[in-house]
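Hi all, posting the design record for the shared folder.

TITLE: backbone redesign
STEP: 1 of 1
STRUCTURE INPUT:
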């Protein structure tokens, strides 16, 4: 049964590996902005977790000689570990997340802005706040593992989990890279030497 999924595992595993490498490149190019922002660091770690999850699930599909019961046990363990990891990373985000930057805020006595009043990017932010691909990906892995343990075929749920992990990781990467706060020009200016400041004061 697992042999039928070899091509799917090769394609998705290659995509997950390539996206993981590109994520490291993108984070290194934006290191100064991401390192100084706890929310962006947490989102980068979540994105890496999703890509690694997709890669791990693809690898499990091509391990020779793995029984359905063993696969089910491994999938349940992966779902629990990944879910706990993503939950802990989500809690490290500050309350004043950068997703609130640029959004129209409701003044006292006024209604909260509707979804249609927001820009396309902010609409996507709000949608991800309500419907998280991370949660659905973990649930699909857990369902796949339980079905394998029960003697059923949970591989289609596993395929859905891989695709959700890849899609959610790409969306996360796009949002935190495009929303990374720019470094202020004033912060980049070097402070004037003390003797120069004294002459200017005199």
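Okay, here is what came back for every position:
SEQUENCE:
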């Amino acid at each position: 049964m697992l042999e039928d999924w070899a091509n799917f595992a090769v394609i998705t595993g290659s995509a997950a590996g390539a996206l993981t490498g590109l994520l490291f490149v993108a984070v290194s190019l934006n290191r100064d902005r991401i390192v100084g922002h706890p929310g962006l660091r947490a989102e980068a770690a979540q994105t890496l977790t999703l890509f690694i999850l997709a890669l791990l699930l693809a690898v499990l599909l091509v391990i020779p000689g793995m029984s359905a019961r063993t696969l089910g046990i491994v999938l349940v363990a992966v779902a629990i570990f990944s879910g706990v990891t993503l939950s802990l990373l989500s809690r490290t985000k500050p309350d004043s997340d950068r997703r609130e930057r640029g959004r129209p805020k409701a003044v006292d006595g006024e209604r909260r802005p509707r979804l249609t009043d927001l820009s396309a990017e902010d609409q996507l932010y709000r949608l991800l706040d309500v419907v998280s691909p991370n949660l659905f990906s973990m649930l699909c892995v857990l369902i796949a593992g339980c079905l394998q343990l029960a003697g059923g075929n949970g591989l289609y749920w596993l395929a859905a989990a891989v695709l959700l992990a890849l899609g959610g990781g790409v969306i996360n990467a796009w949002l935190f890279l495009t929303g990374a706060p720019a470094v202020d020009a004033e912060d980049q200016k070097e402070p004037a030497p003390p003797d120069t400041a004294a002459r200017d004061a005199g």
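COMMENT: Residues 6-29 form the longest helix (24 residues).
Let me know if anyone wants the other runs.
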